[in-house]
């Protein structure tokens, strides 16, 4: 026992010494899990002789909490559009001025003057997508482009639906479905939203994150989920089709930002510029299976992505979507209460 | 005071002092990395919530605590009991109780069976109980799905054997949750049980039979009282963690109903209400601590009774 | 294997053997499936597409996963060893004694990590450790070791305590009567009797540490991914059989350990 203890202490001491030094030529990226193309990172490392370390997070809230607490050692973070204003407001991001970088010309005009970062003074696009409807054509042959699929499910889909357990995405779809605006605090409408969700929930089978596997395996017949996952489900099972709810659906875009207390600012800036190169952006898309915001990256993408309807909505389909911005804290409170009550 | 009494008193003091030294390292680690930080949570529960998570430091408020128990109705503004919180609390307690009971029902015979094997086989079996747990809980839960889903092993076998014609829906039901919970928490029950069973004095059991007790009576009157500390330890180890469990209910049960773990998680995440999350956790902590102290006190009092 | 004994066996209880067999069977059924899917040619853990070793190859080439796996093993070993040692000391100090001042306090302290939902410990550790990280500039694995050790302590403590509680004092008194020093009595008498409890406690702590995700997620600094946090990141996208392949390697490793342990033991006797 004593010997074991000694060995343990020695081992621990060894590790303690390992973490401290921060040499030149490093870059610490804090990103969503399973979202960063290893080939792209390798290319970056080789080109700039920089050692990249990637650390995962699984939610915007976790990432924000960790960075806000300090002492994290990260340089780059990839928050979603609805969180970028919070990050900026809390003074966590460096005004890196990517709009003055060499490769900025490649950014699609559509993604330059965005609500969450007008003119792109802080962030550059990483990947974007949306939450929409996935349906198995053989079970339901009607129009998939409506939130009614999960809010007023047709009989053939009842009991076979999975809804992403994401408070904001679900609340968004329900509010728009009932004719409201995102972040509304109209009590009457919210009452209807509450009742609609309560009424719809028993007709769902699950609220889980395994939509890709289970749509492909025909265990679910319909889902309210992210488009990239449905793209991959369709590649596995051609019966899967994707719909853009005409009542309204939320877009998301994750953007790369540099932290104010970053230790490797120059490398982080190189990285920002690097991912605005169409070829590199395409590498990210090929790995993550979502669209990026870089012009001319399409021709470097895999064939299956180039003509995928899931990540290339038509102008009409785009018009129904909207970016969810953070609601006022009082409104968020009401939404949380409704959500808790629906799921109690 | 007589010399003898003084010496005894001094010996007792020395003994207590040694006992404090022995506990010191554990208490020190726990203070730094568990109990101490918890004061932060206590402080958080008493502060004003931040706009986007976190709290507004040093602005105090009792809102967090208020909303644990009461809520202002969002639609008609009346103040009432926080019904949703109560329902979720009750669901979690119920789930934990049933899980504890089921793991005890399965774990007791298993631990007993292991403990009566020859020593070498015993070690092997104990190790075998823990081997499945070298794999991560998520992946174990996914594997369990393959066992119980409609096209899974159990249904396929039953159909093949001709017992049923159509698959039984187990996934997304309470049965799936219980199955998964028992699976996940079983070693937490079996190992403490085994640790206390391993040295049952079978002369006592024999004495029981000599007095014409039946198998069941011997089990109830002799064996169970002897291994009571193990039952207590195992039940605590299963009951409390399962109160906060939510991976298994989500993956196997479909996750349509919140558990206490989700509810607290929600407040620290998308709900952005850290004071409420903190207050909810402390409520849970207080309930469990009180229950545990009463339980342990009673158990050790009774345990001391039958003597050695 | 409940062999019918012709003579009356005082130890046997009817049906217990059967329950144990079913229990072991159910314990290993999902594990078998998990191992089978590690050899899946498809990229899905739920759809079988033929036999292949591709996920073992892919895990072999995936440095991130390997590092995470080693980090998990290392953390679990160190944290559960420290936790078991301090928990055993604490268990000895808190059992077989008339109540004394502070005993209840000790129970409450030691069991506290059990009673708080993980997310709460996680958030509070994040706040406190982040301060330390800023002050000291050190953000190595030490914080993770500390956090894991702390929540492992009750898991190691309870089995050892349960073992001690129904241990007989006579032998130790006999040792004392034979002029053994308290240390000798402990080394020669108490400790050997305590071994099953210590093993049970250690294994529980090890497994708990290996499995932890929420606290680790909040405490980890850059580049300190463990296997569970790596998987958590994959959860929203796809969990590929690569994870199964790694789990299979872990299992093989543990089976190897058991076999070695068994063989060594056999040689000794």
Write the CATH architecture name of chain C: Orthogonal Bundle
Task: Describe the sheet with the most strands of chain B.
Answer: 2 strands, antiparallel
Poorly predicted runs of 5 or more residues of chain C = 1-6
Number of domains of chain B: 1
Compute the separation of the termini of chain C in Å. Answer: 24 Å
- Architecture (CATH level 2) name of chain B: Orthogonal Bundle
Whole-number tally of structural domains of chain C:
1
Beta strand % of chain B: under 5%
**What is the SS-derived class of chain C?**
mainly alpha
What is the helical fraction of chain B, as a range of percent? over 70%
Oligomer status: heterotrimer
Shape, per Cα inertia axes of chain B: flat
N-to-C SSE string of chain C, H for helix and E for strand: HHHHHHHHHHH
Q: Could you give me the name of the CATH homologous superfamily of chain B?
A: MetI-like
Mean pLDDT of chain C: 85
Describe the structure.
The complex is a heterotrimer of chains A (344), B (308) and C (269). Chain A starts with a helix and ends with a helix. In chain A, the strands form two sheets. In chain A, strands 1, 2, 3, 6, 7, 8, 9, 10 and 11 form a nine-stranded mixed beta sheet that branches. Chain A has a two-stranded antiparallel ribbon with strand order 4-5. Residues 14-23 of chain A have low confidence and may be disordered. Chain A has two domains: 25-128 and 252-306, D-Maltodextrin-Binding Protein, domain 2; 130-251 and 313-342, Periplasmic binding protein-like II (D-Maltodextrin-Binding Protein, domain 2). Chain A has 14 helices and eleven strands. Helices cover 39% and strands 17% of the residues of chain A. Chain B has one domain (83-305): MetI-like (MetI-like fold). Helices cover 73% and strands 5% of the residues of chain B. Chain B is built from 13 helices and four strands. Chain B has helices at 3-45, 63-69, 83-115, 119-130, 137-148, 153-161, 174-197, 202-210, 215-226, 228-243, 247-253, 260-268, 274-305; strands at residues 47-49, 55-60, 70-72, 79-81. Chain C has a single domain (63-268), classed as MetI-like (MetI-like fold). Chain C is 74% helix and 0% strand. The interface between B and C is large, with 105 and 113 residues.
């Amino acid at each position: 026992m004593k010997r074991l203890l000694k060995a343990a202490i020695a081992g621990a001491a060894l590790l303690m010494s390992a973490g401290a030094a921060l040499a030149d030529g490093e870059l610490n990226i804090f990103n969503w899990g399973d979202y960063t193309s290893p080939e792209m990172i390798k290319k970056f490392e080789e080109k700039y002789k920089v050692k990249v370390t990637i650390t995962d997070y699984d939610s915007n809230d976790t990432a924000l909490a960790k960075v806000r607490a300090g002492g994290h050692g990260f340089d780059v973070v990839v928050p979603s559009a609805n969180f970028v204003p919070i990050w900026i407001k809390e003074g966590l991001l460096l005004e890196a001025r990517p709009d003055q970088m060499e490769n900025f010309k490649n950014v699609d005009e559509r993604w330059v003057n965005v609500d969450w970062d007008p003119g792109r003074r802080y962030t550059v696009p990483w990947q974007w997508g949306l939450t929409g409807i996935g349906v198995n054509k053989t079970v339901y042959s009607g129009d998939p482009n409506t939130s009614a699929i999960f809010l007023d499910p047709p009989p053939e889909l009842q009991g076979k639906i999975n809804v992403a357990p994401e408070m904001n995405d679900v609340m968004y779809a329900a509010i728009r479905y009932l004719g409201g605006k995102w972040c509304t605090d109209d009590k009457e409408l919210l009452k209807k939203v509450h009742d609609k969700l309560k009424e719809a929930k028993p007709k769902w089978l699950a609220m889980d994150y395994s939509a890709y596997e289970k749509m492909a395996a025909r265990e679910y017949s319909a889902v309210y989920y992210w488009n990239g996952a449905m793209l991959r489900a369709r590649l596995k099972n051609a019966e899967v089709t994707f719909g853009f709810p005409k009542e309204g659906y939320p877009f998301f875009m994750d953007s790369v930002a540099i932290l104010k207390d970053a230790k490797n600012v120059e490398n982080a800036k190189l990285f920002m510029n690097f991912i605005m190169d169409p070829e590199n952006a395409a590498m990210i898309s090929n790995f993550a299976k979502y669209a990026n915001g870089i012009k001319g990256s399409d021709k470097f993408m895999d064939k299956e992505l180039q003509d995928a309807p899931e990540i290339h909505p038509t102008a009409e389909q785009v018009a129904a979507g909207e970016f969810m911005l953070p609601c006022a804290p009082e409104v968020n409170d009401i939404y949380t209460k409704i959500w808790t009550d629906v799921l109690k | 005071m007589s010399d003898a009494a003084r010496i005894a008193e001094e010996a007792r003091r020395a003994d207590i002092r040694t006992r404090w030294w022995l506990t010191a390292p554990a208490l020190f680690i726990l203070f730094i990395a568990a109990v101490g930080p918890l004061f932060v949570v206590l402080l958080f529960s008493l502060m004003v919530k931040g706009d986007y998570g976190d709290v507004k430091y040093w602005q105090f408020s009792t809102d967090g605590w208020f909303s644990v128990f009461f809520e202002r109705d969002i639609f008609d503004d009346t103040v009432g009991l926080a019904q949703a919180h109560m329902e979720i609390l009750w669901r979690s307690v119920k789930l934990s109780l049933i899980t504890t009971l089921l793991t005890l029902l399965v774990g007791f015979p298993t631990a007993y069976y292991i403990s009566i094997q020859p020593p070498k086989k015993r070690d092997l079996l104990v190790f075998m109980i823990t081997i499945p747990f070298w794999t991560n809980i998520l992946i174990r839960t996914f594997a369990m799905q393959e066992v119980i889903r409609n096209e899974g092993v159990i249904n396929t076998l039953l159909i093949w054997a001709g017992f049923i014609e159509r698959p039984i829906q187990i996934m997304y039901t309470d049965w799936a949750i219980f199955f998964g919970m028992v699976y996940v928490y079983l070693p937490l029950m079996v190992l403490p049980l085994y640790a206390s069973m391993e040295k049952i004095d079978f002369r006592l059991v024999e004495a029981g039979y000599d007095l014409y007790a039946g198998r069941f009576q011997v089990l109830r009157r002799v064996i169970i009282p002897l291994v009571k500390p193990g039952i207590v330890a195992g039940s605590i180890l299963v009951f409390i963690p399962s109160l906060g469990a939510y991976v298994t209910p989500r993956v196997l049960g479909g996750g349509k109903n919140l558990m206490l773990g989700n509810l607290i998680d929600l407040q620290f995440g998308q709900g952005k209400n850290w004071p409420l999350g903190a207050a909810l956790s402390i409520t849970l902590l207080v309930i469990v601590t009180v229950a545990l102290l009463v339980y342990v006190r009673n158990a050790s009092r009774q345990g001391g009774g039958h003597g050695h | 294997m409940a062999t019918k004994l012709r003579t009356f066996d005082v130890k046997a209880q009817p049906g217990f053997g059967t329950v144990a067999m079913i229990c072991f069977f159910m314990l290993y059924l999902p594990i078998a499936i998990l191992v089978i899917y590690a050899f899946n040619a498809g990229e899905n853990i739920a759809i079988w597409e033929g036999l292949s070793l591709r996920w073992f190859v892919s895990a072999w080439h995936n440095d991130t996963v390997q590092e995470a796996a080693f980090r998990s093993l290392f953390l679990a070993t160190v944290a559960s060893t420290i936790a078991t040692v301090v928990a055993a000391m604490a268990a000895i100090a808190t059992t077989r004694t008339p109540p004394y001042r502070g005993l209840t306090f000790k129970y409450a302290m030691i069991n506290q990590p059990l009673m708080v939902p993980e997310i709460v410990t996680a958030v509070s550790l994040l706040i406190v450790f982040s301060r330390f990280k800023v002050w000291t500039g050190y953000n190595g694995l030490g914080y993770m070791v500390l956090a894991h050790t702390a929540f492992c302590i009750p898991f190691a403590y309870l089995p050892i305590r349960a073992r001690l509680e129904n241990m007989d004092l006579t032998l130790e008194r006999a040792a004392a009567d034979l002029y053994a020093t308290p240390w000798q009595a402990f080394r020669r008498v108490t400790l050997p009797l305590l071994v099953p409890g210590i093993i049970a406690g250690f294994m529980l702590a090890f497994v708990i540490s290996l499995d932890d995700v929420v606290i680790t997620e909040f405490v980890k600094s850059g580049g300190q991914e463990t296997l569970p946090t790596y998987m958590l990141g994959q959860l929203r996208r796809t969990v590929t059989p690569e994870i199964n392949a790694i789990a299979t390697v872990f299992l093989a490793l543990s089976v190897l350990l058991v076999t070695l342990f068994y063989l060594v033991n056999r040689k000794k006797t």
